[in-house]
Design brief:
This protein is of the alpha/beta class and 398 residues long. Helices cover 39% and strands 15% of the residues. Helix 1 runs antiparallel to helix 3 and helix 3 runs parallel beside helix 10. The model has no long low-confidence stretch (mean pLDDT 95). The chain binds pyridoxal-5'-phosphate (PLP). The site of pyridoxal-5'-phosphate has 14 residues, from helix 4.
Length: 398
């Protein structure tokens, strides 16, 4: 590929951007993206060094905050999310931390969905609170509850949609209207959908965060994350990262660059397989209920059709019975990995009540619908028939 700066990319579709955009080859003319392993950069002259440091001349300075391989990943992901700018980070949690600490001040108030990723909940409840930033947790699907939680100091709405593990949907456009009416920002963790299935910025959100560790890598190799939005909002986020250093490693950036190249195909295949498994489970006599944002039976099917192009890889279901019936399914699998991760080509089976949500009190867990008979699946790319056979082992005969 030649220099992308000379290409008219405005008409490119996501599939083309994900493969072709953002990488500027070195003088060697390599076809594959190079990993540049260096911590620092040299200058032609004292004047050039001064110009780089003052920002008068764009270019690399020091790999904590300017790195060509990381920048290529940032440009490619930004193009896919429709963002002016991306800031890559060392993990998904580093993305959320960097975004919040870059944009919030002591005394600010946050409204956050109750059903966010566990570490995200702990970050808002136990860590941001130590710096004078208080958070009110509300039901993701109840727009009125978000409205009612607003205080004069509310600066940020934070949500994840679909929620994990119950696959509830937050109304991104509706929540943006509520937040923007009081000049609050809306930040969406788009990890479960990726830009291939959902584009929060196009729905009105101000900031997107990612754990690249999940689907962007897609093969369970590396930790990384990103924050995306307008140049104006990313300036303080980048400034905070530059100073504090939760930066992405060049090697990980290279993995994620290559991951983006197959993201569209993988998300399509993940979604097709997950839908087929969800439909099969829904018809299974040993299954009580199935939660998947692609099933016609999903109570928010209309909203789903408006903001996602398909359901993604993750679903959950309740087996008839309790913990022992759920554990029987989990212990019987021979292909699914018994793990708490998600977003891998390898399928994963999880018992949320005793793992991801094990530290939540029983009352809170039940209020959130995380019952003992609930199983979460992250559907990978193995053969669909093999996956059904594997789940059927512990579910008893049809
Ligand atoms: C895994 C995950 C994170 C955290 O990402 P790390 O890369 O593990 O730090 C944040 N949000 C969601 C939805 C996740 O699944």
């Amino acid at each position: 590929m030649s220099n992308n700066l000379e290409q008219d990319v405005s008409q490119w579709s996501d599939e083309t951007l994900a493969i072709r955009y953002g990488y500027h080859p070195t003088q060697e003319g390599e076809h594959g993206e190079a990993i540049i392993l260096t911590s620092s950069f040299v200058y032609d002259s004292a004047a050039q060094a001064a110009a780089r440091f003052s920002g008068a001349e764009p270019g690399n300075i020091y790999s904590r905050f300017t790195h060509p391989t990381v920048a290529a990943f940032e440009r490619r992901l930004a193009a896919l999310e429709g963002a002016e700018m991306a800031v890559a980070t060392s993990s998904g949690m580093a993305a959320i931390m960097t975004a919040c600490l870059g944009l919030l001040n002591a005394g600010d108030h946050v409204v956050c969905s109750r059903s966010v990723f566990g570490a995200t909940q702990v970050f808002f409840a136990n860590h941001l609170s130590r710096f004078g930033i208080q958070t009110t947790f509300v039901d993701l699907t109840n727009n009125q509850a978000w409205q009612d939680a607003i205080q004069p100091t509310t600066r940020l709405f934070f949500l994840e949609t679909p929620s994990n593990p119950l696959m509830e949907i937050g109304d991104i456009a509706g929540l943006c209207a509520i937040a923007h009416a009081v000049d609050a920002l809306v930040m969406v963790d788009n990890c479960l959908m990726t830009p291939m299935l959902q584009k929060p910025l196009a729905l009105g959100a101000d900031i997107v965060t990612h754990s690249a560790t999940k689907f962007i890598d897609g093969q369970g190799r590396a930790l990384g994350g990103a924050v995306l939005g307008s140049k104006a909002l990313m300036a303080p986020v980048y400034g905070f990262l530059r100073t504090t250093g939760a930066s992405m490693s060049p090697f990980n950036a290279w993995i994620f660059l290559k991951g983006l190249e197959t993201l569209s195909l993988r998300m399509k295949a993940h979604s097709e397989q997950a839908l087929a498994i969800a439909q099969w489970l829904e018809a299974h006599p040993a299954v009580e209920s199935v939660f998947y944002p692609g099933l016609a039976s999903h109570p928010q099917a209309e909203l789903i059709a408006k903001q996602q192009t398909s359901g993604g890889a993750v679903l959950s279901f309740r087996v008839a019975g309790g913990r022992s019936e759920a554990w029987k399914v989990i212990d019987a699998v021979q292909i699914f990995s018994r793990s708490a991760n998600l977003g891998d080509v390898k399928s994963i089976i999880t018992h949320p009540a005793t793992t991801t949500h094990g530290r939540v009190s029983e009352a809170d867990r039940l209020a959130a619908g995380i019952t003992e008979n609930l199983i979460r699946l992250s559907i990978g790319l193995e053969s669909l028939d093999d996956l059904k056979t594997d789940l059927a082992r512990g579910l008893g005969n049809e």
